[in-house]
Design a protein that fits this description.
This protein has helices at about 1-35, 35-65, 70-94. About 0% of the residues are buried. It has 2 domains: about 1-35; about 35-94. The N and C termini lie far apart (about 75 Å). It has about 90 residues and is an all-alpha fold. α2 packs antiparallel against α3 (about 70-94). The radius of gyration is 31 Å and the shape is rod-shaped.
């Protein structure tokens, strides 16, 4: 009986380490697979904002490309160039 207790005591520590390591690994993988609900909500909001900003940029591009220097005058032409540069910067970031 004493030998069984000694054997059980000797092997219980490594077995506990193996089982707990496997359990922690499974929990970690489970957490990586499922994004938190807050993250999903935030992602949906960012996607909606991104779509809105794309529409605004497309509208500005349509306005900017529809105008010519004669319609705008000298000052307007300069503003148009600045606007086109800003649009190029924004589209490069997107």
């Amino acid at each position: 009986m004493t030998a069984a207790i000694i054997i059980l005591a000797v092997f219980s520590v490594p077995l506990t380490a193996i089982v707990s390591s496997a359990w922690l690994k499974a929990k970690r993988l489970d957490a990586e697979r499922k994004p938190a609900p807050e993250v999903e909500k935030r992602l949906a909001l960012l996607e909606a904002k991104n779509a809105e900003l794309r529409e605004r940029v497309e509208t500005l591009e349509t306005i900017a490309t529809g105008m010519d220097a004669r319609q705008l005058g000298a000052e307007g032409a300069q503003e148009l160039k600045e606007l086109e540069q800003r649009l190029q910067t924004v589209t490069k970031k997107a």
